[in-house]
Design brief:
Strand content of chain B: under 5%
Largest sheet of chain B: none
Number of helices of chain A: 5
Radius of gyration of chain A: 25 Å
Oligomer: heterodimer
CATH topology of the largest domain in chain A: Alpha-Beta Plaits
CATH class of the largest domain in chain A: Alpha Beta
Strand content of chain A: 15-25%
Order of helices and strands of chain B: HHHHHHHHHHHHHHHHH
Structural class of chain A: alpha+beta
Structural class of chain B: mainly alpha
Number of helices of chain B: 17
Number of strands of chain A: 6
Helix content of chain B: over 70%
Largest interface: A-B, 67 and 64 residues
Order of helices and strands of chain A: EEHEHHHEHEE
CATH architecture of the largest domain in chain A: 2-Layer Sandwich
Helix content of chain A: 40-55%
Distance between the termini of chain A: 14 Å
Chain lengths: ~180, ~450
């Protein structure tokens, strides 16, 4: 485990919420107050939270999928074509460049490369595997609760605390220093 | 939300008795914590079966492929039958996890983790059979496409080479899809485990925290993987069917093989999902998760695919007669009334006639009845492949080249051992990984909202 990364001159707040709508509202309020460096935690892929609360839009993962699948198709087709051109041997009276047969290989390679590069895209974009010590975390966030973790410069810390308290968190933990998630 | 609205909404949900997120974690993670006596007995049986499996295989490696019943003209027998059977089993897992995901079927959440695990283990089982079948397993690396010492590459026009690509892609993609889906649930297991188990889940959950950034990319990646797995699953059994259909053997050389095999694969796979889900539900106390609604939905899937398969059987008979080709007609006459008539009638009874009972709602909603029918389906679908492979090869064009095949004891040992091998992995799965998808179950549970709790009580 790598130690968590500290943010100099920041304080950290972890608010644990029991309700989904409180979490969404808290995220909206934080954004309205101009805060960007915060993370929301959820036990499920809750699209209201992601889209309304955090205004997340397109994910670049799809570019990885497309690029991987196209590379795979090209590789499969090029590989079969090149190997049969390399030693042109007629089998079964079929043409040396047998398109329908090579489509099968190209298709399977497209799926394989596409799937693997989707996983790579996910790992790069989501920062997985995340080996940092889990400081800014609460184990209830994989169970039934939602969470918001905010780091703020010491000058603005009280404003953030006030916003979070306004939505009735079940627990509000204050860290004397902020961490990167 | 008012009480009435909440109730109404819950009525439409597939798991009306699961009320809170905490209940999902509690009920699912409970399964991981206490291996009962029954589990150990089953695990012991599976381990013994794996020992039998390996003993038979080692005996065959030591003595040579002659210990099997394979010989001219029937060079493909129980091994290839069992290979196709297990590849077919795998398909319904991907159907439930990927295709029903894209269609947003609300009943998939509770069942998909177990069926996806079944997919991975079934492909792991299937993948052994070509190696067993070729006999000299120390040459297994010849399957990898690389040139020989004179730089001649494999013949990519051969369906057997396509099969290598299809099966390895299928195994890789389904294993990745399965593992990726479990990561958030492994994090949930990590947060409740202690000691050595916690360390184990800490490592395999890759430090998942459930942040917005993780979920955002995760849910998108999951959609794209499902979109890739959907055409893949349809292609894999089509490619397997072309292993047969591309050859000019009477009984194999037909264009309906690809859709016919895919439907049969899903049919057999859903059958095995039912066979596995019934005991899981009972022994792990998952009655609120795998409800009668889930079983009814799977029964409908069985009924649909059974009808397609029966239709394909009848089409084959009709076309054999209509073609007017004596070898084709002879092959099918031999299937139904020849030496292997019993295998053909087991196939027709188990796959075509027994599932007709699923037209009755009472049968579809009876878990005991579905369990029995699912076992018939498993047997019938194994015999379907046996009929296709063995009867066709034993009765080709030249009468003097006809011959019979009888599986040897070693082949039967390996066949039965393959079920033990599969069971061994599946039993380990139920103890180590959450057998119901925790995070996805929460999507079909009403979210906790301010004020909804006071209203509900």
């Amino acid at each position: 485990m790598i130690p968590a990364k500290r943010r100099q001159g920041h304080r950290g707040f972890f608010a644990l919420f029991e309700h989904l709508d409180s979490t969404i509202d808290a995220c909206k309020a934080l954004r309205a107050a101009g805060h960007k460096g915060f993370r929301a935690y959820a036990p499920l892929p809750e699209h209201h939270l992601l889209e309304e609360g955090l205004a997340l839009k397109h994910s670049p993962v799809r570019v990885f999928t497309l690029a991987g699948a196209m590379t795979g198709a090209a590789t499969g087709f090029a590989f079969t074509t090149w190997t049969s051109m390399d030693w042109p041997l007629v089998t079964g009276g079929k043409p040396i460049f047998s398109i329908p047969a090579y489509v099968v290989i190209a298709f399977e390679c497209a799926i394989l490369f596409g799937a693997l590069s989707t996983v790579i895209g996910l790992f790069i974009n989501a920062g997985l595997p995340n080996l940092r010590r889990m400081v800014a975390y609460h184990p209830e966030c994989s169970n039934g609760s939602f969470g918001v973790y905010v780091t703020a410069p010491a000058a603005r810390a009280d404003v953030v605390k006030e916003i979070l308290e306004g939505f009735g968190p079940a627990e509000l933990r204050e860290d004397p220093e902020g961490f990167d998630v | 939300m008012t009480t009435a609205e909440l109730r109404q909404q819950r009525g439409t949900l597939p798991n009306p008795d699961v009320g809170t997120y905490e209940a999902v974690n509690r009920d699912v993670l409970k399964v991981l914590s206490r291996p009962g006596k029954g589990w150990w007995i089953l695990f012991g049986m599976a381990a013994t079966g794996v020992a039998v499996f390996l003993a038979c295989w080692f005996w065959q490696i030591y003595k040579g492929i002659g210990v099997s019943g394979l010989n001219a003209p029937v060079g493909w027998g129980v091994y290839i039958t069992t290979f196709v059977f297990w590849v077919g089993i795998a398909h319904s897992g991907t159907l439930i996890s990927a295709i029903l995901f894209l269609f947003r079927a609300p009943w998939r959440q509770a069942i998909y983790r177990a069926s996806e695990a079944m997919t991975v283990f079934a492909v792991m089982t299937a993948g052994l059979f070509p190696l067993i079948h070729v006999g000299r397993v120390w040459h297994a690396y010849w399957l990898i496409p690389y040139p020989n010492s004179r730089f001649l590459w494999p013949n990519f026009r051969s369906p057997l080479v396509w099969d290598v690509f299809a099966i390895t892609t299928y195994f890789t993609v389904s294993a990745v899809f399965f593992y990726l889906g479990t990561i958030p649930d492994l994090a949930a297991a990590r947060d409740q485990a202690r000691g050595l188990r916690k360390k184990f889940y800490q490592i395999i959950s890759l430090g998942w925290r459930g942040t917005d950034r993780e979920w955002h990319h995760f849910s998108k990646a999951y959609i794209y993987l499902a979109a890739l797995a959907t055409p893949l699953v349809l292609s894999v059994h089509s490619v397997v069917s072309w292993d047969f259909a591309m050859a000019i053997v009477p009984g194999w050389h037909t264009t309906i093989f690809a859709p016919y095999f895919v439907a049969g694969a899903i049919f057999s796979g859903v059958g095995l999902v039912i066979t596995l889900a019934v005991p899981m539900r009972k022994f792990f106390g998952l009655e609120d998760y795998l409800t009668v609604k889930h079983f009814e939905a799977m029964a409908k899937l069985c009924l649909l695919t059974s009808s397609i398969v029966l239709y394909a059987y009848l089409t084959e008979y009709f076309l054999a007669w209509y073609s007017g080709e004596p070898p084709e007609r002879g092959s099918f006459w031999n299937r139904v009334f020849g030496h292997y008539w019993w295998a053909n009638w087991i196939m027709l009874t188990c796959n075509g006639f027994v599932p007709l009972m699923l037209w009755f709602k009472r049968v579809r909603r009876s878990i005991a009845a579905l369990f029995v029918i699912s076992i018939f389906i498993n047997i019938g679908m194994w015999f379907e492949r046996y009929v296709i492979i063995v009867t066709s090869l034993s009765h080709e064009y030249e009468p003097w080249a006809w011959g019979l095949y009888r599986p040897s004891v070693i082949e039967m040992g390996i066949l039965l051992g393959s079920f033990a091998w599969f069971g061994f992995w599946f039993l380990l799965f139920t103890r180590l990984l959450p057998p119901v998808a925790i995070a996805e179950m929460k999507e079909v549970v009403p979210p906790p909202m301010r004020g909804s709790e006071e209203a509900a009580t």
